[in-house]
Design goal:
The complex is a heterodimer of chains A (about 400) and B (about 230).
Chain A lengths: L1 H17 L2 H41 L2 E4 L7 E2 L1 H9 L4 E16 L2 E10 L1 H7 L6 E4 L9 E5 H4 L20 E5 L5 E10 L4 H4 L2 E4 H8 L4 E2 L1 E6 L5 H10 L5 E4 H45 L1 H9 L4 H36 L2 E3 L2 E3 L5 H27 L3 H5 L2
Parallel strand pairs in A: 4-9, 6-8
Antiparallel strand pairs in A: 1-11, 1-12, 2-10, 3-4, 3-7, 3-11, 5-8, 6-9, 7-8, 13-14
Helix pairs in contact in A: 1-11, 2-9, 2-11, 2-12, 9-12, 11-12
Chain B lengths: L1 E12 L2 E13 L4 E6 L5 H8 L7 E6 L2 E2 L5 H11 E4 L11 H11 L4 H14 L15 H13 L5 E5 L7 H18 L2 E5 L11 E6 L2 E7 L5
Parallel strand pairs in B: 3-8, 3-9, 6-7, 7-8
Antiparallel strand pairs in B: 1-2, 1-4, 4-5, 9-10
The chains are: A alpha+beta (about 400), B alpha/beta (about 230).
Chain lengths: ~400, ~230
């Protein structure tokens, strides 16, 4: 067995060493590009998921969302619940919100969207909207007649929102009239404009809980309580913990809250990725097959000679498989270098998606899977032509 | 000892049947240097291919040291060629990507000989065939005579008990041919190797112990030569 491997390695090494360098480099480059393709798209998908998760946690939901019990519109005795949740280990922030659908009026234009009533201090402990102010300032406690508005909702003079609600040019200091569902109208002064690049958040506005509660006639009630956990990525564990502490309301993870839209997007991405992976692997199979097939056809006589002098057919096949492994190894290494270059470039110049900038995220499992699939298809594509040629009759091969 | 019993070989080319050997029987004793002669198409090379386990007879059998080699599997035949036979092809049949010494030692490598030993033996055998200064040259850098010497070195490097040579001097000038035949004779005498060589040159006969002359796939004559007396 070892002798066989020794001879196969010797023959493979000599063929690589003295064979066509151009063909070798071309094949390695094709394998490298296939590798890049295998890793690149999943890294973008991972980046999109990462961006989505970050945005969902930082701007939309925190890690967990507590909602009223089924059939209730609001969480009652929100203060008590908030305090109870904050005492649970691993919970680092909570923010009760009252949300309501409203119509905004500004200089004869109107837009329908959501208005959130928040306690600014609590909100700062959960979301990072306050860090994304592009103009003006975030809310402070007692700002009952102030509002902060998403950049899309505030809009730009003369630019329609393309289907999104926009007031086309609201500036800090302007007054905006808000019509509530109960018919009441209130005027708020715009204190700041934020931009998170999360569509749902940028088309909404925030004011203080007191202002909304007063209009809607609520007292110590909340539509939802956002919860920030100490560690991201363990939402299920924290959710179970909250329930085990006797929280009677409905508790959702941010993924559950945003499942529909993102799941569909991810599913679509994964279909594209599967097709792209399949095409890449087919290209790898075809290229390696053609290279080894041409190689073995051209070396048919040599293969016959080797068999004639007593070299076992399997050794000859193994020598071609070793060549393919060598090519696949170099291809994967060059691929890793190219991928690192592309990832580095996209980290400095991220792709901009509707949800925000997307940084590619290369997962070790994806790299390992890509290398494994590349090796698997290369071995199959190298083995078949070598096997076909090596089983040919010795005299037929030699006398060609 | 090589024994051929009623060996036939029929090739089918479409509907045409070519009977290359029509029932050939002979015995070659250990240490004999036998020449197989005959006109073109008489079946010389076909017979050598069968003796060299590169082809199987249509009927009949070949026994080498009492073993019916046709009954061996492909893999067993490969091992038999590796361990017991040396084969010199008419057109050298070297691997162009390998140097002279690499061509020579590839079978030693397959036999599990240590690197130190096969490199030493490879260089030694190339020196024996007069190519001591050409061991790192590739096929394209060697003359026809030199290539044939490399092929011979490859065939004898493992000191096989049987050496088969298919017109090894066909493409060589008479001086190179003579040196190669002298080398065969020396191997035959020094190592008691059985040598079976296909030839159509009359002057080669003085090297042979015995000549098996073929005609139309049958043995035309079998006679001892001067070297065998």
């Amino acid at each position: 067995m070892l002798e066989n491997l020794r001879v196969a390695s010797f023959l493979a090494f000599k063929q690589v060493q003295r064979g066509s360098k151009g063909t070798l480099i071309l094949t390695i480059m094709i394998i490298a590009l296939v590798f890049v393709n295998l890793v690149f798209l999943p890294s973008i998908i991972s980046g999109v998921i990462e961006t989505f998760n970050t945005q969902s946690i930082n701007f939309n939901y925190g890690n967990l969302v507590i909602e009223p019990r089924e059939g209730d519109q609001y969480i009652s005795d929100a203060d008590t619940l908030q305090k109870k949740v904050e005492r649970i280990p691993g919970i680092v922030g909570t923010s009760p919100r009252i949300s309501t659908g409203v119509t905004y009026f500004y200089k004869g234009r109107d837009a329908r969207s959501t208005l959130y009533g928040i306690n600014p201090q609590d909100e700062r402990s959960v979301t990072t909207i306050h860090e994304n102010m592009v103009r003006g300032e975030f809310l402070s406690a007692g700002d009952t007649d102030k509002i902060v508005m998403g950049a899309t909702l505030a809009g730009t003079e003369g630019e329609a929102g393309g289907g999104l609600p926009t007031l086309q040019g609201v500036q800090v200091g302007d007054s905006v009239e808000v019509a509530f569902p109960n018919g009441e109208r209130r005027t708020f002064q715009v204190k700041g404009i934020y931009e998170t690049q999360s569509i749902g958040v940028d088309t909404s506005a925030f004011t203080t809980t007191g202002a909304v509660a007063q209009v809607l006639g609520l007292e110590n009630q909340a539509s939802e309580i956002l919860v920030k956990t100490a560690v991201n990525g363990q939402e299920e564990m924290y959710r179970t913990r909250l329930l085990s502490y006797g929280i009677q309301q409905q508790v959702f993870t941010f993924r559950q809250k945003a499942a529909g839209f993102v799941d569909q997007a991810i599913q679509s991405f994964e279909i594209i990725n599967a097709i792209s992976t399949l095409v890449s692997l087919i290209i790898a199979v075809v290229v390696v097959f053609i290279v080894i097939f041409i190689n073995t056809v051209n070396k048919r006589r040599q293969i016959g000679i080797l068999k004639a002098i007593g070299i076992d057919k399997q050794i000859i096949i193994n020598s071609y498989v070793l060549q393919v492994l060598f090519i696949a190894t170099l291809g994967a290494l060059v691929g890793i270098v190219l991928t690192s270059g592309v990832i580095y470039y996209l980290t400095i110049n991220p792709l901009v998606f509707p949800g925000g900038p997307v940084f590619p995220v290369v997962e070790p499992a994806t790299v390992a899977r890509s290398i494994a699939s590349l090796f698997a298809v290369s071995i199959v594509a190298g083995y078949i032509p070598a096997w076909k040629t090596a089983r040919e009759d010795i005299l037929d091969a030699i006398q060609r | 000892m090589i024994v051929a019993e009623e060996v036939t070989r029929v090739y089918r080319m479409g509907k045409v049947e070519v009977r290359a050997l029509k029932g050939v029987s002979f015995t070659i004793a250990d240490g004999e240097f036998v020449g197989i002669t005959g006109a073109s198409g008489s079946g010389k090379s076909t017979l050598l291919h069968i003796l060299g386990l590169l082809d199987r007879p249509t009927s009949g059998r070949v026994l080498i040291n009492g073993r019916n080699v046709q009954k061996l599997s492909d893999r067993q035949q490969t091992l038999f060629r590796l361990n017991r036979l040396g084969y010199v092809f008419q057109d050298y049949a070297l691997i162009p990507e390998l140097t002279a010494i690499e061509n020579v030692i590839v079978t030693s490598l397959a036999r599990g000989v240590s690197e130190k030993e096969y490199l030493k033996r490879g260089a030694e055998v190339l020196r024996e065939v007069g190519l001591g200064d050409r061991i790192n040259h590739r096929q394209s850098e060697l003359s026809g005579g030199e290539q044939q010497r490399v092929a011979i070195a490859r065939a004898i490097v493992n000191k096989p008990s049987i050496l088969l040579a298919d017109e090894p001097c066909a493409n060589l000038d008479s001086e190179t041919s003579k040196s190669i035949l002298d080398l065969f004779k020396q191997l035959n005498e020094d190592l008691n190797q059985t040598i079976v060589m296909v030839s159509h040159e009359k002057w080669h006969e003085r090297y042979f112990c015995r000549i098996i002359d073929l005609k139309d796939g049958l043995i035309n004559s079998m006679r001892e030569c001067d070297a065998g007396r």
